[in-house]
Amino acid sequence: MEFRVESNMSKSQAFLLLLKMAASAAISYYTLKWLMDQVDPTRKQKVEAKKKANQIMKKLGITGVRLNEYELTIAAHLVDPGSMTVSWTDIAGLEDTISELQETVIVPFQKHSMFEGSQLLQPPKGVLLYGPPGCGKTMIAKATAKEAGCRFINLQPSVLTDKWYGESQRLASAVFHLATKIQPAIIFIDEIDSFLRQRQSQDHEATAMMKAEFMSLWDGLATNPRCKVMVMGATNRPQDVDQAILRRMPSRFWINVPNEKQRESILKLILANEVVSEDVNLRKIAEQTDACSGSDLREVCRNASVYRVRDLMKEEKAKEDKQQEQQDQQQTDQQVQDEAGATGGALEGAVGGATEKPEESQTENGQPALRPITMADLQLAVNKLKDTKNTASDHTRNMYS
């Protein structure tokens, strides 16, 4: 009998001991996790990214999709195609490229069921836009996503970098898992040469593993013909992109500097909503802006528009100075009148009353209206751009001479 009691007591003690050990392990785990979160410098950014991701997913109407913490981090960079302000009408001079993109990318995305039986008519899993900077590569990517009705993941290389070993691979995996869950989707990588550049033996192990994980998952898209996910990259240095990456991007589009006819179309588009004088000759401006990109042409138009603001400010400053002189003159005349009145004399010909102000052209809100953009404004802007480019070229030549 005594032996049975001692046996029961030992079982109770063992159970209590196990319970204490489990409680101690749980407390230690959560304490260690809390400490790790506190020392993690990216903890605040991760929390904000998760909140932003939930808001974007709700705005896009994506429900019933469960995402882990890595996928939520990537989801913070989702862009609603409906909220994009860029469309084909905002791009001028690239009609041939747009037409080819519509045939190659947009139609297979929009009419996927029609081409489901053919593997050759499926949208490409990789598209590369390459060419000089400032020629509209990013605008084309956004317009493609908008016209195709795809979710747009604006992937930045910094998102995939993490100080903890193995986290970069998990984030790279989350990119494709998220895109697959919310398809149709386009994964856009701007300046892809900085992220997926040619691999070398001296590359860091973590970077090499992340690239390998990215390419392995990218190949998985090609094996699933029903998957409507595409990777689109943009670069002005295609020679620096890894050959294995270029193989995964069979559709490549050369976005070159616009020619004279294209420059005229771009100038018309940029100035479409501006007040332009009748003396403006856009063909002549297009002739004078040889080798200029679309970004350069926009800067020319912006500077030309700023010149009229500068003139308006000068006119307002001159009017303020004139009004101040009139007020000073009136105060002087008033003092003379007061002195004459105090001595009993009368001042003849004293200036009195307010002077009439010339009528000014004003907008509906009462502000002075800007004058139209003139040919002289555009000419000054073109000369300024040329001077800037020549100065930059001379500086670069002196650096490497």
Written description of the protein model:
It is extended and about 120 Å long. It is of the alpha/beta class and 401 residues long. Helix 9 (260-270) packs across helix 10. Mean pLDDT is 78; it is low at 1-7 and 346-358. The protein is built from twelve helices and six strands. Helix 7 (205-223) links the parallel strand 4 (185-190) and strand 5 (229-235). It has helices at residues 2-39, 43-60, 69-75, 95-110, 137-148, 167-181, 205-223, 243-247, 260-270, 282-288, 294-342, 375-400, and strands at 78-79, 126-130, 151-155, 185-190, 229-235, 251-254. It is 56% helix and 7% strand.
Record the SSE blueprint.
Blueprint: H1 2-39, H2 43-60, H3 69-75, E1 78-79, H4 95-110, E2 126-130, H5 137-148, E3 151-155, H6 167-181, E4 185-190, H7 205-223, E5 229-235, H8 243-247, E6 251-254, H9 260-270, H10 282-288, H11 294-342, H12 375-400
Parallel strand pairs: 2-5, 2-6, 3-4, 4-5
Antiparallel strand pairs: 1-3
Helix pairs in contact: 2-3, 3-6, 4-5, 6-7, 9-10, 9-11, 11-12
Membrane topology: Single-pass membrane protein
Subcellular location: Mitochondrion outer membrane; Peroxisome membrane
GO molecular function: ATP binding; ATP hydrolysis activity
